[in-house]
Amino acid sequence: MDMVASVLAFLAHAGHSVVSCADDLVSWLQTLLYVNAIQPLLFHAGMMDVDEDTYDALYWVIIGVLEVGLMYALLRPLEALAPAEKWRDRKGVGVDALYTWVTRLGILNLLFFFTMQPFFDHAQSTLRLMGVKTVDLDNLWPGVTTEPLVAFAIYLVVLDFCSYWYHRLSHRYGVWWELHAVHHSQRKMSLWCDDRNHLLDVLGQSCMFAVVALVIGVPPAQFVVLVALTNFMQSVQHANIRVHFGWLGERLLVSPRFHRRHHAIGYGHEGTTYGCNFGVLFPWWDMMFGSASFNREIEPTGVRDQLEGVRYGEGFWAQQGYAFARIGRRLRSRAPRAASAARREARDDATVS
Ligand SMILES: [Zn+2]
Ligand SMILES: [Zn+2]
């Protein structure tokens, strides 16, 4: 037991050192860029009233750039060395890179967390004054947050559980699926594909993630690391690489193969009919709730009706717009069906009476 405790203490210490080193580097870059580039620009544009907010926002932008740079440096060589699928060209992949920059520099997760935090703090202190216990981790398990590594692991698992259900439900409901289908419409999955999402879906996802994190009491510094880790793991899963984590590894962490199965035409997504492998970080939820499939085949990815000529758009705005068009069609086709059901019911009532 002593051994476990000292290993945990060592890991916590190492993790803390890495995070504080990264924080020092980002802060140094933030000041350098701000003083030499951003501040003079703001000064010339007569916008010095927003200088403090801009300085703060720059921190997150730098984190986003470093994260994307690291992801590219690690995953792109692997894609070239051991691709899961060989393509004639990389046409259609570029738009996903655009999504990545928009999402990771917008850093919506962080933005939501930090703008909602004061409201949550206020609500929590009001509840405490009223004698109501909140659900944050320290209340449920007093003292656990003094072990940062244990608390971090619990936060990660709780957030991943919620992400599993968010993802699974987005396949279940028609209108929601049409938004999520933007993600599934990529037939050339690559390291960039993770952020290819409808903007409304991104908004919903970031909002859910931030609210859950605030409710369970994730401290800001840990939230930044949680988001960075989740983003990185998701880039790995979408990368066009032929790797297998081994029997056990595939069951511990979502691998590129496991997630590729989720994107496979005819198996993984299939709109609201069925689906498998919804897990975001851990495949445990799929195993627990009967939606796991550990197929080893590399299958073509995309949405089935793309093969029948349904268009999902090539460019960013087309993809965003087509989703609304599909939602419109779905709602219109639902309206006559509802009307005829109502007519049938009225007829049946008349016959009965
Ligand atoms: Zn995916
Ligand atoms: Zn999906």
Automatic annotation (TrEMBL):
Entry's transmembrane regions: 57-75, 96-120, 206-229
Major place of residence: membrane
Pfam family name, one: FA_hydroxylase
Compartments (UniProt record): Membrane
UniProt keyword Membrane, yes or no: yes
Keyword tags: Membrane, Transmembrane, Transmembrane helix
Domain Fatty acid hydroxylase, residue spans: 152-291
Protein name as catalogued: Sterol desaturase/sphingolipid hydroxylase (Fatty acid hydroxylase superfamily)
Organism field: Paraburkholderia unamae
